[in-house]
Amino acid sequence: HRLRLAGGKSRCEGRVELEQAGRWGTVCDDGWDVADAGVVCRQLQCGWALRARHGAAFGRGAGLILRDDVGCAGHEDYLWDCPAAREHDCSHKEDAGVVCSEHQQWRLSGGRDGCAGRVEVFFRGTWSTVCDSTWYEMEASVLCHMLGCGAPLERPSFDHTLPGKMLYECTRLQPSLAHCKWTYNKSAPCHQSRAAGVICNGM
């Protein structure tokens, strides 16, 4: 057995897919709840469940539907340890999904468009700012590319006004900032920092 999330913006959110006898399939959302999602998040080392998603929220899967009426108590180590029906009356429009606490997504706010502004990251259920103490050309490049905004032109600074602070250190161009080294709410490296911003060229 193997487990993965598909169709999300990081490896810690998406449509639940599991492998059985060498074939991947989905889970039907009948009875799908936060206890079930929590087992998935923990098994994938993605923290805890923020949301259990229904109705193919991350797009429709293909192939088999391997589980229906999943009923995890929440303490199970693996999704396949949970009681579930192998027979189903579902279609892929009922594929189950999860959003886990270790999922990160980004936005730029306060700029003229979605490719400029203060960097904000959604993590562990809340929006945070990013410390500019290690916000260099490489980090800004990773974010601009990831947002489909081209390359960075400027890195303006803003005030921290959100509850959390994130720090990223990228040594090369990664597919997302979550693939770089990061720390969350560590005071020392963020001491006297301002909130990172970026203006991408939008191309």
UniProtKB/TrEMBL annotation:
UniProt keyword RNA-binding, yes or no: no
Task: Tell me the GO molecular function terms.
Answer: serine-type endopeptidase activity
The entry's cellular-component GO terms read:
extracellular space; plasma membrane
Can you list the disulfide-bonded cysteine pairs?
A: 72-82, 170-180
Compartment list: Cell membrane
Signal peptide span per the entry? none
Question: Keyword set for this entry?
Answer: Cell adhesion, Cell membrane, Disulfide bond, Glycoprotein, Membrane, Phosphoprotein, Repeat, Signal, Transmembrane, Transmembrane helix
How this chain sits in the membrane, per its record, is: Single-pass type I membrane protein
Annotated GO biological process? cell adhesion; zymogen activation
Where in this chain does the record put each SRCR domain?
3-101, 106-201
Top-level division of the source organism's lineage: Eukaryota
Under PANTHER family, the record lists: OLFACTORY RECEPTOR 292, SRCR DOMAIN-CONTAINING PROTEIN
| Functional summary from the UniProt entry | Cell adhesion molecule that mediates cell-cell contacts and regulates T-cell responses via its interaction with ALCAM/CD166. Contributes to signaling cascades triggered by activation of the TCR/CD3 complex. Functions as a costimulatory molecule; promotes T-cell activation and proliferation. Contributes to the formation and maturation of the immunological synapse. Functions as a calcium-dependent pattern receptor that binds and aggregates both Gram-positive and Gram-negative bacteria.
Q: What is this protein called?
A: T-cell differentiation antigen CD6
